[in-house]
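Researcher: I'm preparing a figure for a lab meeting and need a structural model of a single chain. I don't have an experimental structure, so a prediction will have to do for now. The sequence is pasted below. Please return the structure as tokens so I can convert it later.
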Amino acid sequence: MKKAQMQIQETILVIFIFIIILGIGLIVFYKFNESSIQEIERNDRMVYFYNMIGTLPGMPELKCSTLGDEKECIDVSKLIAFKDKGDFFNSNITIYTVYPEKSRQECTVQRLNAGQDCGTFSVFNNIPKEWNNKKVIYSPVSLYYPDKGVYELGKLIIEVYS
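Model: Understood. Here is the structure written out token by token.
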């Protein structure tokens, strides 16, 4: 009887140790998998923002058109109306007028209607309070002022925070 009890205790001890090792293995696997998924998410987000350089100027919400004829430019009046619409995660998207050179004042409908000199268009602003990494992407764009019928050269800047 003692030998049988001893074997049962050994079996229980072996099963207990096996469960502990299995639990530790699952925890390590989970942590490794979690960090791998976070890295994939960061990479996907960066690919999304690099693609945005090409797609943002072509968005129907921003693209300029005259009588259904679309052109490769950004309509300034649409740009002002589009401010802070959409969700672009933790980023800051700004367009500056490069040529002709203008002041760095924020453009609003009132400033444009008053004929004031402004050259900054804030498209989206969601800068986190705490961030470790910042990537900046630049691209030239053509800005169209429909009230004047004038094209100007601008610089699209996308800042991505992580």
